[in-house]
Amino acid sequence: MTVAPEILISTAEIAERVSQLAESIAAKVPPDVMIVSLLRGSFVFTSDLIRALHFCGTKNNAPMRPQVDFMTLASYGNLAASSGSIKIIRDLAENVEGRDVLIVDDILESGRTLSFARELVQSRGAKSIHIAVLLEKPGKRKMNIGADFVGFVIPDKFVVGYGLDYANYYRELPYIGVVETGH
């Protein structure tokens, strides 16, 4: 993995859009929302998003006070395409029963992972569920699911950076880039 990816979305564009998303989220979800970050790809997005939420007031001018928990779900492994089956690698530590939940993921593509996560959180008694994704590839959807908050709609290309990976490489890039996977 030595070829630098072609930049699709710059660091500055990401920072500006994350701030805009935080404002939209603060206007629509309760200030004490439980953020469920789907690992590993969304860890960078989640950390920037919760910091941006700190500077947002809610519709009642109350400060945002999100709590955060993490869930690791696997469907890709070292592949460039989803295997179709979802496994829980790391489950939530916090109880979501009666909570307002914001599920945060890096990319909405087939929808399998987000559908699985939403159904799991719903089955555990969440009061409300919203979904925020950094990226969306609308042409790849296999499940009937959408996101309430979308950073960028992107073309059907394999993207890396800003937490997204290919075989666990490229997560450190501060931008979203395109790589050729050979698949």
> Counting H and I runs of at least 4 residues, what is the number of helices?
3
Average predicted confidence as pLDDT: 91
Strand order within the widest beta sheet: 4-3-2-5-6-7
- Using the CA coordinates, give the radius of gyration: 16 Å
**H/E series:** EHEHEEEHEEEE
The coarse silhouette is: globular
| pLDDT < 50 runs, ≥5 residues | none
Main sheet: strands, sense, barrel = 6 strands, mixed
Based on secondary structure, the structural category is alpha/beta
Q: Work out the number of β strands.
A: 9
What is the CA–CA distance across the termini? 15 Å
Which percent range describes the beta-strand content?
25-35%
Q: What percent of the residues sit in helical stretches (DSSP H or I)?
A: 10-25%
Key features?
alpha/beta; globular
Structural notes for this entry:
The protein has 183 residues and is α/β, with parallel strands linked by helices. The chain is 23% helix and 27% strand. It has 3 helices and 9 strands; from the N terminus they run E-H-E-H-E-E-E-H-E-E-E-E. The protein has helices spanning 11-28, 43-54, 112-123; strands spanning 6-9, 34-39, 67-74, 87-90, 100-108, 128-136, 149-153, 159-160, 176-178. The strands form 2 sheets. The chain has a 6-stranded mixed sheet, with helices on both faces. Strands 1-9-8 form a 3-stranded antiparallel sheet. The mean pLDDT is 91.
Chart the SSEs and their pairings.
Blueprint: E1 6-9, H1 11-28, E2 34-39, H2 43-54, E3 67-74, E4 87-90, E5 100-108, H3 112-123, E6 128-136, E7 149-153, E8 159-160, E9 176-178
Can you give me a brief rundown of this structure?
The chain is of the alpha/beta class.
